Amino acid sequence: MRLLILLWTLPTTLIGMLAAGVWMLFGAKARLAHGVVEVHGGRFAYWMMRRGFAAMTLGHVILGFSAARLEQLRPHEHVHVRQAERWGILFIPAYLLAGLWQGLRGRHIYYDNPFELEAFAMDALVAKTNTHKKV
Ligand SMILES: [Zn+2]
Q1: How far is the CA of 8 from the centre of ligand 1 (A)?
Q2: How do residues 35-78 score in pLDDT, each as one tens digit?
Q3: Where are the domains of the chain?
């Protein structure tokens, strides 16, 4: 079953691997963590970060600004990994169309995107869990 999921997600993961390769040409480092390839650092990441980017998930590849930032964003980005596994080859078009649809309705293409709302729900859950840990 896991192999089928990996194959179903492979087209999106390949795009992620291509992006990872470009990032690594600009000095990024890659590591395996929690079943995905995490890529961070380098000049490309810095350039993206200056434009408000923190991390991006493409199948089983997560591109992020730094290793520390990837740690923080892991629960959110792994929601996108699960979405990519669910949607397979349709993930990127579905994500973009969902954002476009929100934009056409006068909403925010990112903050109102249902794919992001699912990930934000995870962020809220993590924040709540961390609050309870502090008490
Ligand atoms: Zn997200």
Answers
A1: 21
A2: 999 999 999 888 888 888 889 999 999 999 999 999 999 999 99
A3: 2-134
Q: What is the mean pLDDT of residues 87-112?
A: 97
Q: From the CA of 64, how far away is ligand 1's center (Å)?
A: 12
Structure tokens at 56: 């991006």
C-alpha to C-alpha distance for 103 and 109, rounded to whole angstroms: 5
Phi, psi angle pair for 52, to nearest 5°: 90, 15
Cα of 125 vs centre of ligand 1, distance in Å, is: 15
pLDDT of amino acid 53: 83
Query: 36-67: b or e for each residue (b if 16 or more CB lie within 10 Å)?
Result: bbbbbbbebbeebeeeeebbbbbbbbbbbbbe
Question: What residues have a C-beta under 5 A from ligand 1, the ion?
Answer: 116, 119
